[in-house]
Specification:
Layout: H1 2-5, E1 10-14, H2 18-26, E2 33-34, H3 39-42, E3 45-49, H4 53-56, E4 61-66, H5 72-79, H6 85-90, E5 94-98
Parallel strand pairs: 1-2, 1-3, 3-4
Antiparallel strand pairs: 4-5
């Protein structure tokens, strides 16, 4: 689903997680990377990473990586940016894209 949005707006990666950055780049998502973002950074963009709902509402869409088969010890390694691309793929890594709007 994320590819449908990739060309509708500029992209931005918001994370300090080196594993996530490497995985996204391996999948062809080569966008500027910010550790922290402001609303003006994300407005009208396809944001990859985790941002609060209130900020996600400024973006066109937000994509996060889910890994349904990641066990607890590997989740801790991922949170420290120490999983390889292959380990993320083996954990079922995939992008899930959301459109968040304030109501």
């Amino acid at each position: 689903m994320h590819t449908a949005f990739m060309f509708m707006s500029d992209s931005l990666i918001v994370t300090k997680n080196e594993s996530l950055i490497a995985w996204l780049q391996d999948k062809g998502i080569n966008a500027p990377v910010l550790e922290y973002a402001t609303p003006s950074d994300v407005v009208h963009k396809h944001v990859y990473g985790i941002v609060p709902y209130w900020m996600a509402a400024y973006a066109d869409v937000v994509s996060e990586v889910t890994m349904p088969h990641l066990d607890r010890p590997d989740r801790d390694r991922f949170n420290r940016g120490r999983l390889t691309i292959q380990e993320m793929d083996a954990a079922g890594a995939e992008l899930v894209t959301y459109r968040v709007r304030k109501v």
